[in-house]
Write a structure and sequence with these properties.
The structure holds two protein chains of two kinds. Chain A is α/β, with parallel strands linked by helices. Helices cover 60% and strands 8% of the residues of chain A. Chain B has a five-stranded antiparallel sheet with strand order 4-3-2-1-5. Classes of the chains: A alpha/beta, B mainly beta.
Chain lengths: 615, 81
C-alpha cells in the first residue's frame, strides 16, 4: 500500500512539565498546528501534522504536562484520560512519545516507567541532550533502550534537525507497532527501578548545573531577588508603553488613510458611514493596541521559557498565601495582565480548587491589555509628557500606578474572601523550579502568533459586531445628523443620571454600554460618538485625544481611569468564569462585586478631585 | 527530624513521607516527585517572607515546598549532622 494513503498514525507527546515537550512539538509540526480546547473543558488541546520522509503523515497531539497518572489537577486528568483512550470524543493515541529532560532523568524516568506499564507502543525521547552534554552528563542510550525495552532516541528540540532521529524511529515504529517488551507489573517500586536504570546508564558529575546554582543564589535572594523581580516588572511596563508607540502611530495613520480613501470612493450615505465610521474606525482603533499586547506577551513567554516565572512564584508565595492565594496564582494573574481569559484558563495549573476559585475571581482586577486602550487614550490626553527624576516618563509612571492599584485591590479582595470562607484546610504549593534556559526564538514566535490570533479573533467577532451595533444606535433614526437624538444618545442620557455622581458625561455613558461587552470597544465607541457628533467627521477619529481634553474635566478623566481598574469585565471574561467554575452564582457574584467596587472607587476619585479643584 | 526543620545547605536523607490524615494527596505527590526512603535532600533557599516557602533539592530537581508540606517528610536521624 502507498504510504501516503494510509490513515495518519496518532502520536501523543507525553511528559513531565518542563521537559521541553512543547518545543519538541513545535520542532516536529512547525506551523502546521491547531490550537483548541478538549471537549467540555478548557484545557488547551494542541494538535499538529508531521510528515515523515516516507511521505506518511502523523497526527501529533501535545498533551498537557503531568508528573504522574495519579492526576492532581485537571491538566493531569485530561492527559491521563487521553492516554488511556477514555476521554470522550478523543481517539486513543496509537503510540506515545514520552519526552524526558536529559538533565532531570530521575524524575522523568519514573513517569516513563509508569507510562510503559500501560503497555502501549512507545518511544522515549531524551530531550535537551545538548544541555546534558554541557553539564558533563553521559547517558548510555543504547543500554537504556535495552533495559527499558522501548526505542530510546536523543533529541535537541531547540536545534534545527534536532528531532531527526526521533522522526526516523517514529517511521520505523509505524511499520510495525508493538507494545513494550518489558513491564514491571502491578505494585512495583518505580523509584527502585528508576535508580537501577540510572545507575546502569547515566554518569552525572554534579546533581545541578552550576549556572542554576549561581543564578538562584541571586535571583532567589530575599533582598536582591525581590529587587530583580520589581525591576523586571517595571521594565515590562515601561517597554509596553514606550516601544509600541512607533508601530501604533503607523497603524493609526494606516486606518485614517483607509477611512479617507473609502470615504472618497463611496457616495455619501448609510453604507459609506457604516464602513468609515463604524467598521474601519472601530476595528482600526482596536488593532492599534496589538503592538502593546504582543510586547507584553513576548515578555511573559520569554520569562516562562527561561524558567524565571516559577521563581517569581517562589518569591511571592508567602505574600500571595497571606492574601488567600498561592504562589501558583502568580502566573495566571500575570497572564491576566494581557487578558483575563487566558489568565483564568491558566488557573487550571492551581491544584487546590479553593485557591483556584479565589484566583479566578480576582483575575479580572489585573489590568488586562483591553484596558490599555482606555488608559492610553486618557493618559495621553490628560497627563503631560514629562521626564521625572531624569529617566522615567511621567505617563509611564501613571500607567504603573494604575497597574499597581489593580494588584493591590486584587490582594485586598482575596484577603477579604479568605476571611469569609469557612474551609480553612491546607493548600499545596509543590512547585518545580526548572533549570534556567535561553528562550528559543521559534517557540516564542509560535506562542506570540497563537496569542495574537486569540486576540484578533475576539476583535473580529465580538468587537466588530458591537461596533456595528453601536453605529446602528448612533445612525438611526435620524441618519447620524444629531447624536443627542439618536438611540444611543437617549440611552446615554438616561444612564448619565446614574453616572453623574462619578462625573461621567453622556458620551462616556454611551461608550460604557459596548464597553461592558468588551472593554477595548469603549475607545472605538468614544471615537464613533465624537466622530458623528462633530461637523468635521473625517478628522475626528484621530483627534479624539484633544477633543476629550477640551470636553472633559481632569476629575472626569481620573474617575474614568479608576472606573476601568475595576470596570465590570467583558462578556467573554464572564463566560470564561462561568465555564471554569461551572457556576452561574460565581459569575453573578464576580459581576456584582466588580460593579460595586468600580462605582465606589470612581465616585470617591471624582468627588476628591472636584474638592481639590480638578472639576 | 523533619525536612521542614532541616537547616539550609545541610544534606539530609529521607526516611519516609507520612500521610496527614486518610488519602493525603500531598503526601502521595511528594512520593511521586521523588521524596522516597534513602533519597538525599537539601534546602537550598528560603523565601523572602517568613522563610517560606523553602526550596528543596531532591535528586536533580528543585521543588518549592511550604513548611507544612515539608513537615510530612521524615529524615533519618543523625544524617547531615
Amino acid at each position: 500500500m502507498n504510504a501516503e494513503t494510509l490513515a495518519p498514525l496518532r502520536l501523543a507527546l507525553v511528559g513531565n512539565p518542563n521537559c521541553g515537550k512543547t518545543a519538541l512539538f513545535n520542532q516536529l509540526t512547525g506551523s502546521r498546528q491547531k490550537v483548541a480546547n478538549y471537549a467540555g473543558v478548557t484545557v488547551e488541546r494542541k494538535e499538529g501534522r508531521l510528515r515523515g520522509p516516507s511521505g506518511r503523515s502523523y497526527a501529533v497531539l501535545d498533551l498537557p504536562g503531568a508528573y504522574s497518572l495519579n492526576a492532581a489537577s485537571l491538566d493531569e486528568a485530561v492527559a491521563r484520560d487521553v492516554i488511556r483512550g477514555c476521554y470522550p470524543g478523543e481517539a486513543a493515541p496509537d503510540a506515545l512519545v514520552c519526552v524526558m529532560d536529559a538533565t532531570n532523568l530521575r524524575l522523568h524516568l519514573r513517569f516513563a516507567l509508569e507510562l510503559r506499564e500501560l503497555g502501549k507502543p512507545m518511544i522515549v525521547a531524551v530531550n535537551m541532550m545538548d544541555a546534558a552534554r554541557r553539564r558533563g552528563i553521559g547517558i548510555d542510550l543504547v543500554e537504556l533502550e535495552r533495559l527499558l525495552g522501548v526505542p530510546v532516541v536523543e533529541t535537541v528540540a531547540v536545534r534545527r534537525h534536532g528531532a531527526r532521529a526521533l522522526v526516523e524511529r517514529i517511521e520505523r515504529m509505524a511499520e510495525a507497532l508493538h507494545a513494550p517488551t518489558q513491564r514491571l507489573g502491578k505494585g512495583a517500586d518505580l523509584h527502585a527501578e528508576t535508580r537501577r536504570l540510572l545507575a546502569a546508564t547515566v554518569r552525572m558529575p554534579a546533581r545541578t548545573a552550576r549556572i542554576d546554582d549561581a543564578l538562584d543564589r541571586w535571583l532567589l535572594h530575599p533582598l536582591f531577588g525581590l529587587l530583580a523581580l520589581a525591576m523586571v516588572m517595571f521594565l515590562i511596563f515601561q517597554a509596553v508603553y514606550a516601544w509600541a508607540t512607533p508601530l501604533m502611530d503607523l497603524i493609526d495613520a494606516g486606518t485614517a488613510w483607509l477611512g479617507e480613501t473609502v470615504g472618497a470612493v463611496l457616495p455619501e450615505g448609510p453604507l459609506s458611514s457604516l464602513l468609515v465610521d463604524g467598521i474601519i474606525a472601530g476595528v482600526g482603533g482596536v488593532i492599534v493596541f496589538l503592538p502593546q499586547i504582543l510586547i507584553l506577551f513576548a515578555f511573559i513567554l520569554a520569562l516562562e521559557e527561561s524558567g524565571y516565572l516559577p521563581r517569581a512564584a517562589f518569591l511571592l508565595d508567602r505574600m500571595m498565601a497571606s492574601a488567600g492565594l498561592s504562589g501558583r496564582s502568580f502566573i495566571p494573574l500575570l497572564s491576566s495582565f494581557a487578558c483575563a481569559i487566558p489568565g483564568i484558563m491558566a488557573t487550571r495549573s492551581i491544584q487546590d480548587p479553593r485557591d483556584r476559585l479565589a484566583t479566578i475571581l480576582v483575575a479580572p482586577l489585573m489590568t488586562c491589555s483591553a484596558r490599555l486602550p482606555v488608559y492610553a487614550l486618557l493618559i495621553g490626553a490628560f497627563i503631560p509628557q514629562k521626564t521625572v527624576w531624569g529617566v522615567f516618563n511621567r505617563q509611564g509612571l501613571v500607567l504603573f500606578g494604575l497597574y499597581a492599584a489593580g494588584v493591590a485591590s486584587a490582594l485586598l479582595v482575596s484577603w477579604v474572601m479568605k476571611q469569609w470562607r469557612r474551609d480553612k484546610g491546607e493548600h499545596a504549593l509543590l512547585l518545580e523550579l526548572p533549570s534556567y534556559r535561553v528562550p528559543h526564538a521559534r517557540d516564542l514566535l509560535i506562542g506570540l502568533w497563537e496569542r495574537a490570533m486569540i486576540f484578533l479573533k475576539r476583535v473580529g467577532g465580538i468587537i466588530l459586531a458591537l461596533t456595528v451595533l453601536l453605529w446602528v444606535l448612533l445612525y438611526f433614526p435620524n441618519g447620524g445628523a444629531d447624536v443627542t437624538q439618536s438611540l444611543a444618545g437617549r440611552i446615554g442620557q438616561a444612564l448619565s443620571v446614574v453616572f453623574a455622581p462619578v462625573g461621567f458625561n453622556w458620551q462616556i455613558c454611551i461608550a460604557l454600554i459596548p464597553g461592558l461587552a468588551a472593554r477595548e470597544v469603549a475607545v472605538s465607541s468614544l471615537a464613533t460618538v465624537y466622530a458623528l457628533s462633530t461637523a468635521d467627521d473625517t478628522a475626528a477619529a484621530q483627534a479624539l485625544a484633544p477633543l476629550i481634553n477640551d470636553g472633559w474635566s481632569l476629575a472626569t478623566a481620573l474617575s474614568l481611569l479608576v472606573w476601568y481598574i475595576y470596570a465590570p469585565m467583558c462578556i467573554s471574561t464572564l463566560a470564561t468564569i462561568k465555564r471554569e467554575t461551572n457556576s452561574w452564582k460565581q459569575m453573578a457574584g464576580a459581576t456584582g462585586y466588580l460593579f460595586a467596587l468600580a462605582y465606589a472607587a470612581a465616585f470617591a476619585t471624582y468627588q476628591v478631585a472636584v474638592l481639590l479643584g480638578a472639576g | 527530624m523533619r525536612l521542614a526543620e532541616l537547616p539550609r545547605r545541610v544534606p539530609g536523607i529521607v526516611a519516609s513521607v507520612e500521610d496527614q490524615g486518610p488519602n493525603d494527596s500531598i503526601a502521595r505527590r511528594l512520593r511521586e516527585l521523588g521524596f522516597v526512603a534513602g533519597e538525599q535532600v537539601e534546602v537550598v533557599a528560603v523565601g523572602p517572607m517568613g522563610s517560606e516557602p523553602i526550596l528543596v533539592q531532591v535528586g536533580f530537581t528543585r521543588f518549592a515546598l511550604r513548611r507544612a508540606e515539608a513537615a510530612r517528610v521524615r529524615l533519618l536521624d543523625g544524617a547531615g549532622a
